[in-house]
Amino acid sequence: MNEIRFLENRANPTVKICGRVDSKNAADVEEQITACLQGVTDPAVVLDAEDLEYISSAGLRVLLRLRKAHPEVRMENVSTEVYEILEMTGFTEILPIVKAYRKLSVEGCEVIGEGANGSVYRLDPDTIVKVYTDPDALPDINKERELARTAFILGIPTAIPYDVVRVGDLYGTVFELLNAKSFAELLMHDRENADHYITQLADLLKLIHSTKVKPGSMPDMKETVLGWVDFLKDYLEEPVWKKLRALTEAVPAQDTMLHGDFHAKNVMMQNGEVILIDMDTLCMGHPVFEMGSIFNAYTGFYVTSPERRGAFIGLDAEMAEQVWNGLLLHYADGDEDKAKKIEQRAALIGFVRLMRRLLRRDGMSTPEGRQTISVYRRNIEKLTEEIDDLTW
């Protein structure tokens, strides 16, 4: 059965085509598409072909006429069968054509990681899938794949996504990680060897921070942090904010690779090899910005509830403290004074991020939120007074 309908709430005007389009109904299909797009001036129309079973030469002529009215028209979710017709007739050279994605279900699958952008599920002993929260995440997926490829070429041991899939109404990327376990799992189930795992985490972090990237090839984390600081201008005393702004501005620009979300759930062990995952946050800048994010993962998030320390990344409070302290000391090559210096500066960046985050989430509307924001503010004030530069 043929059906044409306009899909609401899409980034671009989208028309869904179902069934068959051939000489018998091509004129009717064209009329329905024209009615759906009445008044639409956007040249970038999308034809959703997920349920299109067949298209004949008469249907192809409809596409050509549609292209005249909407020069940037493209087809998405095209089945293998329909794609073969389009390819054979040369339409893949005329229109942007995106093949349909394989469909997967994560029902009953183990959740091995959760973040702001999505969740990671284990499909089977060999395979994991990261499912993105945003239903329009394809640009983010392509960005992450390119960043992961760049990191891999530069010598960072990372899993390269090999397939893009549909999981319900969402998109996901599939990785092959044969019998891999996160470092959070290893630390909690093999506590006697925790120092060994912490050393491996620190070695990987130092490898990342010793890797130089092409200027401009990744987001500049300094610009992001300056944005956080600027957001706090109306929430901090003027002298505090001015010094905080000056400290951040004074951090030298660097083409150093940063992961952006480095913690024990984003590092995997596969057959004795350490592998970094979740590469959508890859960026560049001074390592202090990375250490601020790591501080939050192990300490900052829990400053008002220390008993929950490490819960987000699957660690208990004791292990989270051991990992953070051990990571710092090994990263500082055993120099305790340097480790304390790094921690102090990381804490300042971390609390800036947390305060801005909670304010943006309407934290001032609840007593608990206001109390937590007050704790963040006091830490920022204290650390800003104590610190004269953010580097080491």
Structure report:
Helix content is 43%, strand content 20%. It has 3 domains: 3-100, 2-Layer Sandwich (Transcription Regulator spoIIAA); 110-176, Phosphorylase Kinase, domain 1, CATH 3.30.200.20; 182-386, Alpha-Beta Complex (Aminoglycoside 3'-phosphotransferase, Chain: A, domain 2). The chain has 12 helices and 16 strands. Helix 1 runs parallel beside helix 2 (57-69), helix 7 (221-231) packs antiparallel against helix 8 (238-249) and helix 9 (287-298) crosses helix 11 (336-360). It is elongated and about 80 Å long. The longest helix is centred in the last third of the chain and has 25 residues, at 336-360. The strands form 4 sheets. A 6-stranded mixed sheet has the order 6-10-11-9-8-7, with no helix packed on it. Strands 1-2-3-4-5 form a 5-stranded mixed sheet, covered by helices on one side. A 3-stranded antiparallel sheet has the order 12-14-15. It has helices at residues 26-36, 57-69, 80-88, 138-153, 183-189, 194-209, 221-231, 238-249, 287-298, 317-331, 336-360, 367-386, and strands spanning 3-7, 14-21, 46-55, 74-78, 97-99, 102-103, 110-114, 118-124, 127-132, 163-167, 170-176, 181-182, 257-258, 267-270, 273-276, 283-284. The N and C termini lie far apart (68 Å). The model has no long low-confidence stretch (mean pLDDT 93). It is α/β, with parallel strands linked by helices.
